[in-house]
Amino acid sequence: MSFDSIITFLPTRDLAQTAQFYEEVLKLELALDQTRCRIYRVAKGGFLGFCLKDEVTPQDGVMLTLVTEAVDHWQALLAEHDVPIEKGPVFNPDFQIYQMFLRDPNGYLIEIQRFEDPRWRTPS
Questions:
Q1: Where do the domains of the chain lie?
Q2: pLDDT tens string for the chain (124 positions)?
Q3: Which CATH superfamily is domain 58-124 in?
Q4: Starting from the edge strand earliest in sequence, which strands make up the sheet with 6-12, in order?
Q5: What whole-number distance in Å separates Cα of residue 117 and Cα of residue 61?
Q6: Which of 99-118 are b and which e, b meaning 16 or more Cβ less than 10 Å from the residue's Cβ?
Q7: CATH second-level architecture of 1-55?
């Protein structure tokens, strides 16, 4: 037996700024607004939640990875919103991925990547 879905919750000091980024820049669907928490659909059965907290210290090593075939599209869209890119799209031969990096308003590292290994490619 397996699970039906996954939600990863992360804390934020500024839920409005976080909502603006994930809704207006990344265009994620707001699945549930719980006033102090907002849950976004990232993929079928995959959700990301942010909850308002007074004190937040992003943990080293926390990285959100969004998998898409359209890495270059996302770079262009983020540039339109003046989102600073930490590392532009590049092929990573060690992991056989095409990836880019940026930070969200909370300082969390976001990787947008595409698998180049055909065994992991998203079916069209």
A1: 1-55, 58-124
A2: 666 788 898 999 899 999 999 999 999 999 999 999 999 999 998 999 999 988 777 666 688 889 889 999 999 999 999 999 999 999 999 888 999 999 999 888 899 999 887 776 655 5
A3: 2,3-Dihydroxybiphenyl 1,2-Dioxygenase, domain 1 (3.10.180.10)
A4: 6-12, 46-52, 37-43, 29-33
A5: 24
A6: bbbbebbbebbbbbbbbeee
A7: 2-Layer Sandwich (3.30)
- The pair phi, psi for residue 6, each rounded to 5°, is -140, 140
Q: Which helix (H) or strand (E) holds 113?
A: strand 109-115
The number of residues in the chain equals 124
Question: For residue 101, which amino acid is it?
Answer: F
Distance CA 92, CA 75 (A): 17
Q: Do residues 49 and 8 lie in contact, with contact meaning Cβ atoms separated by under 8 Å?
A: yes
